[in-house]
Amino acid sequence: MLRKKVPRLLQVFKRTSHCDRQQYDVIVVGGGHAGTEAAAAAARVGARTLLVTQKIQTIGALSCNPSLGGIGKGHLVKEVDALDGVCGRAGDWAGIHFSILNRRKGPAVWGPRAQLDRQLYREFIQSDLLSTPRLTVWEGSVEELMVEEPNPEKPGRHQVTGIRLANMETPISARSVVLTTGTFLSGSLFVGQTSSPGGRIGDAPSSAGLSHTIRERLGLRTGRLRTGTPPRVVKNSVDVSLAKLHPADLNPTPFSFINTQTRCKPEEQLPCYLTFTTPAVERVVRENLHLNCHIQQDTKGPRYCPSIESRVLRFPGRQHQVWLEPEGLTSDLLYPQGLSTTMPPDVQLRLLREIPALHKAEIHTPGYGVQYDFVCPTQLSPALQVKSTQGLFLAGQINGTTGYEEAAAQGLVAGLNAARSALAMPTVMLSRTESYIGVLIDDLVSRGVTEPYRMFTSRAEFRASLRPDNADLRLTLKGFEELGCVSSERYKEAVRVRDTLQDAMAALQSLSALPHIWKQKLPNIEISENKSGELTCMNLLLYNDVTIEMLASVFPESLSPYMEFSQRLKIEAVYRPHCDLQKREMARIQREETMLLPEDLDYFSLPVSLSQEVREILDRVRPTTLGAATRLEGMTPAATVNLLNYVRFSN
Ligand code: FAD
């Protein structure tokens, strides 16, 4: 059952919003993906919370691609949901094409993903915030952060005291403030050779006053990053018969642990299509590079969502994938993922039309780029609080990340801690060993960023145990018992799930039979002849083709009560040995921290599995020890193990 019915109440939402200018516990600035999770989490913890954003109608807006989840990102959505966040439920409501990416690999690295209906997503988020107790939403632009100068007893530490809105003299006070200004801080938009101030198309940048407080008053180090988006194409002008159909999964898997189905019925889902660029696209890009000032600048863009200009320059002569994705159930537009560009609009049209399926394409809105300031995240604590300013928390793209999911995950942690700090409770953190959220925040605050950071499964040391399927067991119980951001209804359900799974695992461990009995009962499974002694159900589950349903046909009385969790149990049983191995590998890396890396290593030709990104970093920095290599930005645990094995065993 899908729990939430969404009324279409945007007008009511606007009317009921009010800002009484009294003291709030928490003020959240910005109603994007970080801000909405921050505001909702702060209110769930019990704080009187105010969300101030430039335009209420853009709360929950998807600035770029209409999709949620994916590899690594899907893990973040599941974890935010396990902590009672909003985005997973919104995804289930607004999803119009669900698929699990990476299915050829193990369930630990599957990427739950959905194409979204933009309007439905926005409506759900807005409606959910409206019905959140203790949360007030106010439309306005924050002009200035109110801060008290450092207390002489705690030199160097400012104290945030509130905000001041544009066109309003009197500040609004709060004990904690969460800044989630996304791409809006000193934002500039770029198309061709023109640029104009803006945070997103149709939206003004964040005020100069806010940048001033951050840089001059608080003395925070900032940097500049960029990103871009493709043109939106009129659906009727695209010949999808010339592209490859990519249907959705037959059985859509909800993001949220409290939903058993998605709003969109399986047969109502819309397809995506795959097509490719041609050599002519590359020619048009190369001939017109001089007309594109965004791409000519040194500012770093997202490595994993590069513009077509960057793709052509980095990988000349290649065909590049272009996904044609629906923008909504009733939308007349398609989103050509892979064609992010900041060329002048007429050049955008020419390059689009060099792709067979798009040879008659009409552009509805041209692609554009945005450049914005971010705050170097090493200045934050693991609670996402600015180390030098008591009560100031930052989350989302302002911390140098890219993506809705990364923003939502940080927003939840910042909002939760802003509330705890305001209510005089100790701040809390999530560790790398228990969550991808912990990996994300640890990477940001301990390594910093030099280019927009996005999540990948390879960034997590404990991939085998940090799976999308078990995020509720990892986080919901802690979320209720220690963090205070999970409802008792969700908690009770997580306890039921945990207890049932524990009972089931114990049963699977205790039920056993001799190999020849198993062979009689399950004749289609090839059980090794060499096996002697009893084989437990747990042993049998390690065989690819063995399901819980098969085992229940052998032990119906003992196992049929657990059929509700058959898929989870199979995954749990298969991953137990991997989890143990991972723990041993991590212990080995820690033991070998001081191992010297040869000075003359040619990282580009090492015959081991290392991504191009990791090879480039290693070659540039040339760390002297394995420990130094592990601390490099972009260095993954998997790469560390491969490097360790190579150096240890190659001589
Ligand atoms: P946003 O979603 O940007 O929200 C910020 C909010 O703060 C807005 O509602 C804004 O109105 C509000 N705000 C700002 N300043 C103030 C103020 N002073 N007072 C009150 N409110 C304020 N992500 C990808 O993963 N891949 C991509 O390829 C990609 N391309 C992008 C292209 C473009 C052109 C843009 C604009 C974004 C792109 N993104 C991309 C980024 C994606 O949109 C962000 O990662 C995500 O939205 C970040 O969420 P956020 O909450 O940090 O900020």
From TrEMBL:
Keyword Flavoprotein assigned: yes
Pfam family, one: SAM_GIDA_C
A GO CC term assigned to this protein in UniProt: mitochondrion
Cofactor(s) the protein needs: FAD
GO MF annotations, alphabetized: flavin adenine dinucleotide binding
Record InterPro entries: FAD/NAD-bd_sf, GIDA_C_N, MnmG, MnmG-rel, MnmG-rel_CS, MnmG_C, MnmG_C_subdom, MnmG_C_subdom_sf
Every tRNA uridine 5-carboxymethylaminomethyl modification enzyme C-terminal subdomain domain range: 573-645
Keywords associated with the record: FAD, Flavoprotein, tRNA processing
GO BP field: mitochondrial tRNA wobble uridine modification; tRNA methylation
Flavoprotein is among the record's keywords: yes
Family: Belongs to the MnmG family.
PANTHER family, sorted: GLUCOSE INHIBITED DIVISION PROTEIN A, PROTEIN MTO1 HOMOLOG, MITOCHONDRIAL
Protein's name according to its UniProt entry: tRNA uridine 5-carboxymethylaminomethyl modification enzyme C-terminal subdomain domain-containing protein
Species lineage: Eukaryota, Metazoa, Chordata, Craniata, Vertebrata
